């Protein structure tokens, strides 16, 4: 007679067939929860118009591009207020294009066509964002989203710089993001095909020198002034960009690859929403700010659709007694400032969700 393998319980005792049946029923129930939530969200998506699914976000991105000519003209003004207004317009447009645009493009949320989705990914990530599209999609979609808060895979450790003091990391170092990004992109080219490397280099150079050329020819700035304006525009939202990337995952439960929970538990325990913020919601996108939980559960949705299904997701999770984590920007900043060593220097503890593994 074939022996049935035994499993040990948490107390160390042997678990029989009845306990294994209970585990299987629990697993089926957890899968059903995710399927039930997915059905509710899909119903909302199917009932939505193209305008709701993609139109709103495409319009915001288009508005950012449309505002650029006025920004270049204002930057050429001799009046300080006009110059500062042009700088602000350029900085906001850059944030919308390189954060919101690259994020949506990396998930293929700008088009239903795979060919157009690939085109927009290359355009936004490489031409506008000065990074490798292949490396960006690999790191963000295939690692961070697939292995959210799993130690060594999607644990957001790439954002940590433990050798930096907390004040430098939180308030000064982010200003160097425009310089660091293309340098990191160069390092990410290793292992890619010569054609991909050439495409990335050409696209990044086109994006950089196009802005530089327009600042020189349209705005009439000198070489040094044009480079300084480029740095200021690209660094304008770098502080909240870094903050958002660490606030919504680090400090929350982390899991081991060998004992990660089911997806719905992994995302609800390891992801946090920030409150609505007009400036960040429209420049970074709802999915990165106030709908981050929804985004991690359904990463294919656009920003506007994440906002639309937010009440559905929050109500469902609360009804099923699952966490729906939210915290304020200032509250998270205060937490990271006072617990910087624990959160950003030391290795995070591994969380075992007893009873839901």
Task: Write a structural description.
The protein has helices at 17-46, 50-66, 68-75, 80-106, 114-128, 133-145, 166-171, 177-188, 194-217, 223-235, 238-247, 263-270, 278-283, 292-297, 303-319, 329-338, 340-345; strands at 7-8, 14-15. The chain has 357 residues and is mainly α. The longest helix has 30 residues, at 17-46. The chain starts with 6 loop residues before the first strand and ends in a 12-residue tail after the last helix.
Q: Any idea what the radius of gyration is? A: 23 Å
**What is the average of the pLDDT values?**
89
Q: Which spans have pLDDT < 50 for at least 5 consecutive residues?
A: 1-15
The dominant shape is: globular
List the total number of helices.
17
Percent helix: 55-70%
Reported for the largest beta sheet, the result is:
2 strands, antiparallel
Record field, number of beta strands: 2
Strand content: under 5%
Give the ordered list of helices and strands.
Answer: EEHHHHHHHHHHHHHHHHH
Lateral strand order in the biggest sheet = 1-2
Termini gap: 31 Å
Find the structural class using helix and strand composition: mainly alpha
Outline of the structure:
The protein has 357 residues and is mainly alpha-helical.
